[in-house]
Amino acid sequence: MTPIQAPEVEYALIAPLLIVSGGAVLGTLVEAFVSRKHRFGVQAVLAFVTVLAALADSVYVYLHLDRVAGVGRGQISTEGALAVDGPGVVTWAMLSVFALLSLALFAERRLEGGLSAFTGRAADAPGSPGEAEARAARLEHAEVFPLALFALLGMMVFATANDLLTLFVALEVLSLPLYVMCGLARRRRLLSQEAALKYFLLGAFASAFFAYGIALAYGFAGGVRLADIDRAVAAGADNRALLLAAIGLMSVGLLFKIGAVPFHAWTPDVYQGSPTPVTAFMAAGTKAAAVVALMRVLFVAFGGASVDWRPLILAVAVVTMLLGSLVAIAQTDVKRMLGYSSVAHAGFLLVGIAGAFAAAGRVSSVSAVLFYLAVYGVASIGAFAIVMLVRDTHGEANHLARWAGLGQKAPFLAGAFALFLLSFAGIPLTSGFVGKMAVFSAALSGGFWGLVVIAVLASAVAAYFYARVIVLMFFTEPVGDGPDVAVPSPLTTVVIAAAAIVTLGLGLVPGPALEFAQHAGLFVR
Amino acid sequence: MILTFLMLTPMVGALALGVVPRTNERLAKIVAATFSLATLAGALAMLTRYDLGEGGYQLVEKHLWVKSFGVYYALGVDGIGLTLILLTTVLTPIVLLAAWDDLLPDGQRFHGYLAWMLVLEGLAIGVFSAMDAALFYALFEATLIPIFFLIGTYGTGPRTYAAVKFLIYNLVGGLLMLASVIGLYFLSSQSGDASFLISDLTGLEIGADAEKLLFLGFMAAFAIKAPLFPFHTWLPDAAASATPSTAVLMVSVIDKVGTFGMLRWGLGLFPGAAEWATPVVVTLAVISVVYGALLAIGQDDLRRLIAFTSVSHFGFIILGVFAATSTSTAGATFYMFNHGLSTAALFLIAGILIARRGSASIADFGGVQKVAPVLTGLFLIAGLSSLSLPGLAPFVSEFMVMAGTYTRYPVAAVVSVAAIVLAALYILVMFQRTMTGPLREDNANIRDLNPLEMASLAPAIVLMVGLGFFPQPLLNVINPAVDATLSRIGVGDPPPQTPQFPAAVDQEGGHE
Question: φ, ψ for residue B258 (rounded to 5)?
Fold first, then answer.
């Protein structure tokens, strides 16, 4: 009888993942053993420390990655389950930063009179006596912190998964906590629960497509590792129908998470219904993890079949940009508007991916998309943080008409929001412009100049609805007393300030960050 | 360093306005005026360091900005850029003084109003001195934001509509230019290290088709900005909703970026494609000249009338640029300066009139000269300058454009002469209806200019008259740069077509 071989795990390399999962597990214990009075604070601090440690360790891991000649840096680890490479670790660090900023919004308690933005007792039906009782007792759910950590873990694994099964597990680990968190809003609970249900049903549906795609890919290649599939594609195995179906079905699952048309239908509803801190976390984190995973699958596993999938991504990019921008014009709710804006940005990201361009010394698709994700994520979190502060007696005042005259009432807040919108619109001297320039140049270098022209025209349409919000805030007289602007705790203030500084800073001095994204290199196989 | 200093001075002024106490508007005005005068002083100091005989770029500063894209923070001026920087720095103090008594909408303060104008001045200086295509693009697009806020927040009438229309029109053009800028990156990175420096880009090998596409992207932005018929429709709306000072900065300074860009970037980088497009552009320019003038005659709103005269004048400038003879191009550059002055004077005086009467409609005026003789006199000078009366500066430039254009495109030059007649119509009819005739009762309490207003207008009037009689100093600055630009493009002047008289043969025979 042969002894069972213990799997070889490079613990030091994947330590950031271990830290996050450890923190999440610890969080569930805290929930069980720490008294209700101290729970929220302990959870918040624990989550902060965990993510901070993960961020620091990601940086450490990045600095010690092996160089791979001609490709970049990093290696396959954990028996081929994870690819700890330059882009992957950069994504870890990026996700940790998004999580830090979002957690600060999770912990904001000054806006609801000393309570968090999450419901006191989720089990109570909206409007029931139980809910009133929970409110009177000033109950709070602190589980959101471990849930967020689990979601973060899923995102981090998602971005570095090197085989399709790990990818699927990571997809579920990142999705399930998010489904729960979407339904936890303190205000407008019906809307929130509806959002959670929609997200869950559609997400489960997309997961099923994804799983079926994995099965077909296994049938095609006889393995689930990305490198196995790459070999099978290169060997020109017959069963091309199987290959195409696998690419198509797996793309459905991934494009769903990215929020690309025609799989975007959940985005506006979920963005609108979720508690705003969760929306911020999702907008930045899920998008980043899913885009990196999509790139990894397409470039590494199906790189040899790029002729087959590039037209697909190109078509999806075009409809996503146009539909996202056009429908956003008609929105009257700021969160829905940002939701459709996120759809449009998914399209711009796909423009960079469609280029599928890689060459030494030039802006590649991977580095361009990483830069774009970073600047878009930070600006999104900043924008949603501001959405949390504009309020009326029923909580957040999300109807855009209520935002009229914000510029006179709170010039700095409105100025910061305008800055984020200008960055989304891609106006020069903001980070969004550099991101757009990077992904467009990747697409052009890949040979798709027509796509670039469509993309710049879509940017002009998108600029129109961002301009409309600026018009409302600055050029329109306030209705009645105008919007109320709540005074936040330093947590939210710091988030908004940090996001604004990054947005302006990376617009004025984008050089180092862009070079860093380039040095991260390409995916290892 | 002096160009960076020049660009940053007004921006620092804008920041300084942020710390002026909110209630002290007077101090805000003084601070803003001080910084704009400091910028003007800086521009004059720059003039002393500038070598007039040289045609190339001077006072160059260059630092790598974004390595991945090969973008340089590179500033430098030639005579063309210098002329426009002078225009910018001269006009900004004038408009800040002219804005002294502006009535702002409720709840708005002078701090923001003046700060945006100073930011705009800084960006304009950067645009005129950028030697890197990506830097130029970034600053060019960034100028949209100050104007957007200046019209939308501080304007009158349908200001929101006008501001959004302005933004979207110009953004569409700008984004098409972005596609071309990225195309340039693609081409330059293919042939080694990417670089956006104008010196590297002019040596770039570009295929004929690619050149045409890239040129069209740049031209889309410039044609909308300038504005060239049929992309001009945003201008009258924007000008009618802006405050007079904003309108001056927009039409006299920022719109010049369009014609300036055509000369430096359009013709400079893509001479082959420019030649290919010239017949179309020249035709559109002639249409602009005539159509703008015709529409100006029909306007009832003073500000829209001035905006349409500008469409006509921009047609002349574009005509001169694309005719690409040394006389026409130098004339076009000189025209950019002169049009800036005469339009500034017209907009500001019209603004004063409108503020005092409470209406912009020509039909609401009559006989103003009886109550406001000085205002009327200056308005007449500004108007005559706009119709290019000999003795005033625009005449020299318009004549140069037409004379230079005639040697290459005689038909275009002849047709555009018609605009001179039309110009006399739109200016003089407007003057007659507003200033002369019996004094209307509701015009009786229009005050004459106060000393501050006279002081703010005086520099523009003095320059128009002075350069009208003695244009040579400015032409000495412009000519070397124009010659250098045209020789880079590689189009020479057409040979003079003097008839061959038999006498000439005799003369030769006499030598034998």
Answer: -60, -55
Place of tokens 């990417």: B194
The alpha-carbon gap from A370 to the nearest alpha carbon of chain B, in Å, equals 14
Cβ–Cβ below 8 Å for A514 and B68: yes
CB distance B175–A459 less than 8 Å? Answer: yes
Reported as a single tens digit per residue, the pLDDT across B3-37 is 999 999 999 999 998 888 888 888 988 999 999 99
Residues written for chain A: 525
Looking at the complex, report in whole angstroms how far the Cα of residue B230 sits from the nearest Cα belonging to chain A. 19
CB atoms within 10 A of CB A68: 16
Q: What is the DSSP string of A251-294?
A: HHHHHHHHT-TTS-THHHHHHHHS-HHHHHHIIIIIHHHHHHHH
Confidence band for A212, pLDDT divided at 50, 70 and 90: very high
pLDDT at B498: 65
Q: Give the Å distances, CA to CA, from A394 to A187, A482, B371.
A: 8, 15, 59
A515/B68 touch (CB, cutoff 8 Å), yes or no: yes
How do residues A126-177 score in pLDDT, each as one tens digit?
888 888 888 888 888 888 999 999 999 999 999 999 999 999 999 999 999 9
Global pTM? 0.93
Determine contact: B139 vs chain A, CB below 8 A: yes
Query: What local confidence, expressed as pLDDT, does residue A6 receive?
Result: 81
Helix (H, G, I), strand (E, B) or coil at B76: strand
Q: What are phi and psi of A114, to 5 degrees?
A: 90, 5
Which positions in chain B touch A475 (Cβ < 8 Å)?
152-153, 159-160, 163
Chain A environment of B163 (Cβ under 8 Å): 471, 475
Which residues in chain B are contacts of A510 at CB distance < 8 A?
A: 66
Interacting residues of A86 by C-beta distance below 8 A, sequence separation 6+: A62, A65, A72, A73, A74, A519, A520, A521, A522
Contact A463 B139 (CB under 8 A): no
Ranked by mean pLDDT, which of A356-370, B115-129, B362-376, B445-459 comes out on top?
B115-129
Interchain contact, A511 vs B168, CB within 8 Å: no
Between A7 and A272, whose confidence is greater? A272
Q: Which among B66, B137, B139 is the nearest to A514, CB-wise? A: B66
Which pLDDT score is estimated for B36?
A: 93
Say if residues B120 and B140 touch (Cβ distance below 8 Å). no
Closest CA–CA distance from residue B181 to any residue of chain A (Å): 9
Q: Are strands A484-485 and A390-392 parallel, antiparallel or unpaired?
A: antiparallel
Residue A353's nearest CA partner among A304, A431, A294, A418 is: A294
Given an 8 Å threshold on Cβ–Cβ distance, is A440 in contact with B194?
no
Asked if B56 has any chain A CB less than 8 Å from its own CB, the reply is: no
Task: Assign 3-class secondary structure to B170-183.
Answer: HHHHHHHHHHHHHH
**Cis omega (within 30 of 0) on the bond before A177?**
no
Residues in chain A with CB shorter than 8 Å from the CB of B234 are: none
Question: DSSP class of residue A301?
Answer: I
User: Are A441 and B182 inside 8 Å of each other by CB?
Assistant: yes
Nearest to A367 by CA among A523, A161, A152: A523
Query: Distance from A114 to chain B by nearest Cα, in Å?
Result: 33
Per-residue pLDDT reduced to its tens digit, B258-273:
999 999 998 888 988 9
Is the CB of B145 less than 8 angstroms away from the CB of A452? no
The residue type found at B48 is: T
For residue B510, what pLDDT is reported? 44
Q: What is the mean pLDDT of chain A?
A: 90
Question: Cβ atoms within 10 A of the Cβ of A480, count?
Answer: 8
User: Distance between CA atoms of B39 and B14, rounded to whole angstroms?
Assistant: 13
Distance linking the first and last C-alpha atoms of chain B: 61
How close is the nearest chain B Cα to the Cα of A420, in Å? Answer: 14
B209 touching A (Cβ < 8 Å): no
